[in-house]
């Protein structure tokens, strides 16, 4: 005999959202993530104080790095988790711009929410975004300049990139010194792009200006005591 009772597919504690409720939940979660890290963006961005609970209860960390902040917060909203994973991919692939991509994505979703309220179909919005990507890419390619044949101009381009990156970091007061160190280290790779070849040794004591770049290998050794 066939039972007409509904069959439960999900686990007992699982929840299911459909239609407008699911869409609204996704928008709220993603926009909240963008608002969380928006205030840390740029050279005048503010730091966040992260207080740990559980195993490391009481430990405090001060940072304005978007990837660090997003990794440290607990999230159960699926759309918000997508933005967090996106920032992790950005950090792994590029090493910078984690806050920028998160804020950009959340603002796009904020505008998408308004367009959906105007009864514009989601696929129409996605199609517009794809066209906008092509237009933006074309504009960037037209604005680019290739100075690879001019050593001095190429080095100055790298210095400007390093200065811009360090302007929003804790090293902003020493960005000239560390920009030079970073550019010199990258140029010694001679285009290989293998950043694993650059070894960083941290030593306590001294100041940030005592940091230097050396040729060859540096071995961190302690003198033996007999």
UniProtKB/TrEMBL annotation:
Which PROSITE patterns has this protein been placed in? TCP1_1, TCP1_2, TCP1_3
Quaternary form?
Heterooligomeric complex of about 850 to 900 kDa that forms two stacked rings, 12 to 16 nm in diameter.
Keyword set, alphabetical order: ATP-binding, Chaperone, Cytoplasm, Nucleotide-binding
Q: Name one GO molecular function term.
A: ATP-dependent protein folding chaperone
Q: Which Gene3D superfamilies match?
A: GroEL-like equatorial domain (1.10.560.10), TCP-1-like chaperonin intermediate domain (3.30.260.10)
Look up keyword Chaperone and say if it applies. yes
Per the similarity annotation, which family is this? Belongs to the TCP-1 chaperonin family.
Check the record and name the Pfam families matching this protein.
Answer: Cpn60_TCP1
Q: Which organism is it from?
A: Oryctes borbonicus
Tell me the protein's name. Uncharacterized protein
Q: Where does it reside?
A: Cytoplasm
* SUPFAM superfamilies assigned to the protein according to its UniProt record, in alphabetical order: GroEL equatorial domain-like, GroEL-intermediate domain like
KW Transport (keyword) present: no
Write out the function statement from the record: Molecular chaperone; assists the folding of proteins upon ATP hydrolysis. Known to play a role, in vitro, in the folding of actin and tubulin.
Task: Provide a GO CC annotation, any one.
Answer: cytoplasm
Q: Please list every transmembrane segment annotated in the UniProt record, as residue ranges.
A: none
